[in-house]
Design brief:
By secondary structure, the protein is α+β, with helices and mostly antiparallel strands. It has 2 helices and 10 strands. The chain is 23% helix and 41% strand. The longest helix has 31 residues, at 150-180.
Amino acid sequence: MKEIRLVEMRALEDDGMVVEGYAAVFDSVTNLGYMNEVIDRGAFDGADMSDIVMKYNHENNVLPMARTRGGSLQFNVDDHGLKIRAKLPDTSVNRDIYTLIQEGVLSKMSFAFTVKSEEYDYETDTRRILAFDKIFDVSVVDVPAYESTEIYARSKEEYEKEKEQHKKLELEKKKALALLSL
């Protein structure tokens, strides 16, 4: 299931329209409303990041802002997280978005991904992402997409089901241990 998360970004006073930011930050607790989420430091190791597109609000019906395949989007996994740097091609949409980033109207980033490996702590309602499968895009966003999207609702439902199953298993284990101690 493709998921989306939010982080910050800024415009640089370089040659042309250059923006950079962190699309993901390690070991930082993100509250999704129904559970917390943490990205493990090794989560990007082995992930498919062969063709990441930079978009506005994850929209497919808007021209891409930059792309790794064309060289206008670069990324680096460092000690802090997934850092991106993009030299935006001179288009009217990119000029508008760049101006809004400079003015601080747009200051957040998001990224779309699928998870390969994760673990849950049902006592603290925390999911730790251990490994990403694929990174689809990084996006400049005006509103955190995951707070109201359909993907958020489905993810919450799946998590609640898993948590309930975990509670039932824990109760069965306790009952079995109590019987064994008799």
